[in-house]
């Protein structure tokens, strides 16, 4: 009976930061990808296709820039089922250490982002027979927080990590519960003129 409760499969979580976007937009609908951001998203899609990985699903933040990035990636990976998730929208997960002067309260975003972490970062269900590869298209703050939490680093260190637009971060969770960071912020698939990170 106990054997039925033991995980057998490996979960691979591949986190993609959205492409560069219009920071002058006043609403989410106006904060769409720039031309550079669209090129970044397309090249990330090409890179993911080149990896020849049997992706299981794509989960996209419901914010416009992540939706657009995911749609452009889907041009290279058209057969992957896509779902949307509000938990992984951009926000301020936890007060950073060292502190910054313009800190917004995490009360609005912290519990939601933590719920996103708990939803996606866990061992495979015992009923899962094959390894899974989940693409999550979201935001820098969310990815940085998830990396710290997954590796059991102090979560307050999230702001010390820098991620380029369209970059790839890969975390693996084994059946034993061991967590490995295989790639952090890979952006070698971009030419130098497409390397951007702020904001």
UniProtKB/TrEMBL annotation:
<keyword id="KW-0496">Mitochondrion</keyword>
<dbReference type="InterPro" id="IPR029033">
    <property type="entry name" value="His_PPase_superfam"/>
</dbReference>
<dbReference type="GO" id="GO:0005741">
    <property type="term" value="C:mitochondrial outer membrane"/>
</dbReference>
<keyword id="KW-0378">Hydrolase</keyword>
<comment type="similarity">
    <text>Belongs to the phosphoglycerate mutase family. BPG-dependent PGAM subfamily.</text>
</comment>
<comment type="subunit">
    <text>Interacts with Pk92B/ASK1.</text>
</comment>
<keyword id="KW-1000">Mitochondrion outer membrane</keyword>
<protein>
    <recommendedName>
        <fullName>Serine/threonine-protein phosphatase PGAM5, mitochondrial</fullName>
        <ecNumber>3.1.3.16</ecNumber>
    </recommendedName>
</protein>
<dbReference type="GO" id="GO:0090141">
    <property type="term" value="P:positive regulation of mitochondrial fission"/>
</dbReference>
<dbReference type="InterPro" id="IPR051021">
    <property type="entry name" value="Mito_Ser/Thr_phosphatase"/>
</dbReference>
<keyword id="KW-0472">Membrane</keyword>
<dbReference type="Pfam" id="PF00300">
    <property type="entry name" value="His_Phos_1"/>
</dbReference>
<dbReference type="InterPro" id="IPR013078">
    <property type="entry name" value="His_Pase_superF_clade-1"/>
</dbReference>
<comment type="function">
    <text>Displays phosphatase activity for serine/threonine residues, and dephosphorylates and activates Pk92B kinase. Has apparently no phosphoglycerate mutase activity.</text>
</comment>
<dbReference type="GO" id="GO:0004722">
    <property type="term" value="F:protein serine/threonine phosphatase activity"/>
</dbReference>
């Amino acid at each position: 009976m106990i054997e039925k409760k033991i995980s057998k499969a490996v979960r691979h979580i591949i986190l993609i930061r959205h492409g560069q976007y219009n920071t002058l937009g006043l609403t989410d609908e106006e904060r769409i990808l720039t031309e550079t951001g669209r090129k970044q998203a397309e090249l990330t899609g090409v890179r993911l296709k080149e990896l020849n990985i049997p992706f299981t699903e794509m989960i996209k933040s419901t914010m416009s820039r992540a939706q657009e990035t995911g749609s452009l990636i889907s041009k290279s990976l058209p057969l992957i089922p896509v779902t949307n998730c509000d938990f992984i929208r951009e926000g301020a997960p936890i007060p950073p250490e060292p502190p910054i002067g313009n800190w917004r309260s995490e009360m609005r975003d912290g519990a939601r982002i933590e719920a996103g972490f708990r939803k996606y970062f866990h061992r495979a269900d015992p009923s899962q027979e094959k390894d899974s590869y989940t693409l999550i298209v979201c935001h820098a703050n969310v990815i940085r927080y998830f990396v710290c939490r997954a590796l059991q680093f102090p979560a307050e260190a999230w702001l010390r990590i820098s991620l380029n637009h369209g970059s790839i971060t890969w975390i693996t969770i084994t059946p034993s519960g061991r967590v490995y960071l295989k790639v952090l912020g890979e952006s070698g698939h971009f030419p130098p003129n497409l390397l951007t990170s702020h904001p």
